[in-house]
Amino acid sequence: MAPEGCTAGEMERVRTNHRIRIDVLKDIMKTLWSFRLLGWLPSDTLYLTWSQVEEFVAAGTQRPADTLDLIPDWFTRRHTADELKTFRDGGDA
Asked: Where are the alpha helices (DSSP H) in 1-93?
């Protein structure tokens, strides 16, 4: 059985291409779903590390209104001020 929003075929393709076992893939999906339920957005995963995502989920940390303090320097050097504002507001630049 595939998690909501993910077909069995998609899970099989990820497992085959990345050699990830289905149980590990389900754990990843569960963590990402919990992350979304806490108000975090898909664009936040572009600058957060997986360990940060896991920490936020474990602690039940809601997404702050402004994520500027969480955006690393290497990410800020790659984007314009307008793009960073879009990311901080939860959009895709």
From this structure: 8-18, 22-37, 50-59, 73-76, 81-88
Q: How many residues does the chain have?
A: 93
Would the pTM of this model clear 0.85, i.e. be above it?
no
Distance from first CA to last CA of the chain, Å, rounded? 34
Assess contact for 69 and 47: CB atoms under 8 A: no
CB 84 within 8 A of CB 71: yes
At residue 84, does pLDDT exceed 60?
yes
DSSP state of 29: H
Closest CA to 84 of 42, 4, 1, 92: 92
